[in-house]
Amino acid sequence: xxxxxxxxxxxxxxxxxxxxxxxxxxxxxxxxxxxxxxxxxxxxxxxxxxxxxxxxxxxxxxxxxxxxxxxxxxxxxxxxxxxxxxxxxxxxxxxxxxxxxxxxxxxxxxxxxxxxxxxxxxxxxxxxxxxxxxxxxxxxxxxxxxxxxxxxxxxxxxxxxxxxxxxxxxxxxxxxxxxxxxxxxxxxxxxxxxxxxxxxxxxxxxxxxxxxxxxxxxxxxxxxxxxxxxxxxxxxxxxxxxxxxxxxxxxxxxxxxxxxxxxxx
Length: 265
Fold this sequence. Notes:
- The chain contains 3 helices and 17 strands.
- It is mainly beta.
- It folds into 2 domains: 30-122, no CATH class; 126-248, no CATH class.
- The strands form 3 sheets. Strands 16-11-12-13-14-15-17 form a 7-stranded antiparallel sheet, with no helix packed on it.
- Strand 8 and strand 9 form a beta hairpin.
- InterPro entries: DUF1684 (IPR012467).
- This is DUF1684 domain-containing protein.
- It holds the Pfam family DUF1684.
- It comes from Glycomyces algeriensis.
């Protein structure tokens, strides 16, 4: 690779890194998490939050206007029911600058608090990364399965599991060794993988993610490990991130991408 192409590669990676850190530090981004609560069937108060919260057949919130809780711009005054399965996305309740995410996780309802004043956000000083190296951007071959494969995996929480829908396998060679990763497909056709490698527990988080452009017609796909990202659970104890499938443990040390961050004390 010529010096000009290396410079272009580094500039592209630097721009990606700046955008990545800007997204992380948004007021209600992943660094703003301050609490996670499973909702019980019986309505109950949650620490430092007004109202009564429950999660039986539906997630519900009972509050009065004086509690200062708002949903879709209106004060919550009475019983509010969240049909999260129909919506296909979390619901958001606001109280001042805080936002409470009402979500469905593993068939159970939960509330997670996001606060711009979270120490993980106010104390953030960047993500340590390996220096960009073009040798860690490799071309692989994606082969789609005839039918998606559903795999149950653990998560960053011991009381939660996830269902991953795997759509195909990517074969590639990196650091002189042949490897493969099982991938998922996003709504826009892009590919996503969760993986671990030989650096885990040393310089990187327990597992990382990699987003890939859609494969070409012949299955070619670029895996740029310089853009391997930490999952939210690397930054906060309130993450619910899924683990990779066992098959996605690479036999090489991926000395590229994001390293293990330090959490504020």
